[in-house]
């Protein structure tokens, strides 16, 4: 019953999001046909283009056509590119998804041992120093870090390219820049959870019975990482929907850069499609997190 309720809420949420995204963009002042042809175009040309784009139909007809096609996987045709919106999104999704997955793997490869090492530091001054470093990681602006790293590693040391050049080696530097603030964020949360878990009674019981430290750490990590699961989902959402600034700096043709381009050119079908895609991904991600969370901790689905 728990999963059925979650599934119904997910479907209703997607429907509501699609409706809201369509209505909000329809109510924006201005005429897309005029924006495409320019203010000097003749009234006849503008009217012909409006008919081609379906802008001469009533609001209700346009809404029904869009919502019907959207739930059949057709998000319309881009005004700028003249191609299917779904095709444009799917062409850029693998690259953005690769950046997101690599960045998250990097975050956890660094954050988990870093959190354990930070907890094992006994000297308070040294621990406060590393906590300050993590605070800097969290608060540092990504655009400034991107420009700094590009100049130092790309221009001075020439270890990497200063932009995307159609291979995965050129994504290493952007992924590292994306991961640095997330490393500070996840490490601080995990460190706080470790501090709490290590004072639980079951840890004292296992320790007193002679359990080896590496096995004990696995038990601690399993419970300490549980509150991190929702944060990981939100972090993945932020990355998959496009880190706009990093994609702009490194000229990466991902989802974020496509969104910026569509907004500047007033490409309404593409903007609607991207909003619907990102919002649907958010709903599906939250649904997946709820399912995963309930499997890890059965008390969630039992309502405890």
Automatic annotation (TrEMBL):
CDD domains: TM_PBP2. The chain crosses the membrane at residues 7-28, 95-121, 133-159, 171-194, 215-237, 274-296. Keywords: Cell membrane, Membrane, Transmembrane, Transmembrane helix, Transport. Signal peptide: none annotated. GO terms for biological process: transmembrane transport. It is found in: Cell membrane. GO terms for cellular component: plasma membrane. It is a multi-pass membrane protein. It comes from the Bacteria. Residues 93-293 form the ABC transmembrane type-1 domain. InterPro entries: BPD_transp_1_N, MetI-like, MetI-like_sf. Its main location: membrane. Belongs to the binding-protein-dependent transport system permease family. This is ABC transporter, permease protein. It comes from Fusobacterium equinum. The lineage of its organism: Bacteria, Fusobacteriati, Fusobacteriota, Fusobacteriia, Fusobacteriales.
